[in-house]
Amino acid sequence: MPQTLTEKILTRASGRPISPGDIVEVNVDLAAFHDLTGYHVIEVMEKMGKVRIWDLDKFVLAFDHLAPPPTERAAEIQVGLRKLAKSLNVKYFHDVGDGILHQLLLEKYALPGQVVMAADSHTTTAGAVGAFAQGLGASDIAAIVITGKTWLMIPEPFKIRLMGRLNPGVYGKDVALHILREFKAEGLSGKSVEFYVDDPSAFPMDYRATVSNMGTEMGADAAMFIPDQETINYIRNTRNLDVKPVTPDLGAKYMDEYDIELSRLEPLVAAPHSVDNVKSISEVEGLDVDYVFIGSCTNGRLSDIEAAAKILKRGKAKARCIAIPASRDVFERALELGYIDILVKAGCVVTYGTCGPCIGGHFGLVGPGEVAVSTSNRNFIGRMGSKEGKVYLANAAVAAATALEGKLADPRKYPS
Q1: Residue list, annotated binding site for [4Fe-4S] cluster
Q2: Which residue numbers delimit the Aconitase/3-isopropylmalate dehydratase large subunit alpha/beta/alpha domain (predicted)?
Q3: Interhelix angle 35-48/138-147, nearest 10 degrees
Q4: Is 0.70 surpassed by the pTM of this model?
Q5: What domain range is 301 assigned to?
Q6: Can you say which residues are annotated as belonging to the binding site?
């Protein structure tokens, strides 16, 4: 019987025939946690009396959420995790400055057809390369790190087809926000979304990563792009590795399908205080903005930094602006291309990959009564700082145009 990508991956991982709704045990190909969740994972492992890693080639640890540590407690946790990594001979350990875990998994580790599990909800990002990727809680990840196995309920496969090309000023973030507008937050719960791109070159990996990242906001169990030539090229270019894509069979059956004509989309913004409170840029344009954040595991990739630089090269930012490339590799490439210089000269504060502002942890929080535009993934009350602040989510070009003008702005008025 023809299988979807979801069914192919989970059939292999479980070693048995599967159907939606089945509860199965699966072998995990890649597991990870970061500084903020790692502490809790280790606590669980210690209570179980089994602090060990089942396979050092399949485990990644990264410091990203409170990195560099803004409090004594955060520093204490990182000291403990460093000691643990050394004692367990962890091979893939990324200390402060290397980047955000999800970006690192995408750049260096995740592969098509894998089962990827990590202690963070935005693990779905790895779905951009065609991996079945989920975020799980500390107890589940502790069990995975010890045994290499987990259980899950087989989700229903749901196909979204991306057709045509995006217009200038419109990016992957707008596709994610469009889906949230149509299906609402958690609207795809219990589904494994498989994205099929008609023209692979029209939707590059950076855009795919943004959409997969926000799959968790949609409620999806996984948000996978069906591997194609773009996938092959990305992995070859980032890792000098040739891969054979895992793809659905011809005639595979989905519980439902939805088509998106990319050329019909415009820049979108998620207004406070929900990711599905989506409006067109024209509905909110002109609103005074105090603070702009360009970065996060959602939109801290090279194309985002490039889009911001092409707009901010026109002058000084009128709203305070913090820009954080999602990894050291992205930072160094942006530095080579002159984008970092442009952002700094425009008045932005720029640093290495950290989640700080996105989670309201450090390095730039929203103050009482302030309005912020962020390229991150969540805007609920208090997410980025004060409960009295308001956060609008947008693509990097909207954020940069907003920083330049000090008001929510349409980036299409600034052609490259």
Answers
A1: 297, 355, 358
A2: 24-406
A3: 70
A4: yes
A5: 268-413
A6: 297, 355, 358
